[in-house]
Here is the input.
Amino acid sequence: MEIAIDKNALSPELQHRLEEFEAQKAEYLEQQRAFQDATQETARLRAAAKALQAEADGADSEWKEMAKEHKADQRKINAQIERAVSLRQQAEGLHRTAEVREELHGTQIVGMADARLNLQKKAGVLNAAYRDERFKELLATAGLADVVAELFALNSARVHAERNEFERDISHPVLAEEFELRDRIEREEFGQMMADYCKGSAPGRGAFEVAGVPPAVPGEVIAGSVIALKRLKAAGGEIPDDLDSRGGNYGPVQGLRRV
Here is the structure.
């Protein structure tokens, strides 16, 4: 069963809070877009540097082969050497640029992790508020209380009838504790009966969510707690290892996950 949520039917307060959430989510999506653009450009620089390095290696091989000839043209050899040096310098320049850009990636990763953790917290609060609001709204449905009360009374009458038949067959008086236990069982049976009745038609848990967090993008680091976020910030956007006072390494810090 699918539930269509009419956000315009929410209380004014919840609508206002949801609008603020959506504005913050839009900022987070922009952070993700900027991060993807930055990482793609860095990857392009790395690929270009690799291609230039390969070209420089090829130029080195060429002038070395030319130098083996008896009548080698020194000018051509010099030209190839200069070309190899120039290509290698260009490759090194691109590598350095990429390395500096990766520092920017770390800053972006920390910013996204902070924004995402904040969004997750706010989404949880908003969804809880919506569920409470919707619960009260459904309880106020005209005639619902009468129907539920009659169902409960009918179930109680059935259980009491079965209880009376049982009590006629036992040889000892029913204790007060037994009555309390049976009353509790009666309520539990009623709840189970209603759950069985609704089985198959009840909406999934996600149907009662008005606020959601977008999926993480490749390379993004998700922080599962404030403590994990602090560790990520201290490491400049990298997932640090968990070290003890004696230098023991327990692997990556718990609560941080790279997508």
In short: The CA atoms of residues 126 and 211 lie 7 Å apart. The chain has five helices and four strands. Strands lie at 221-223, 241-243, 249-252, 256-258. The chain has two domains: 10-219, 220-259.
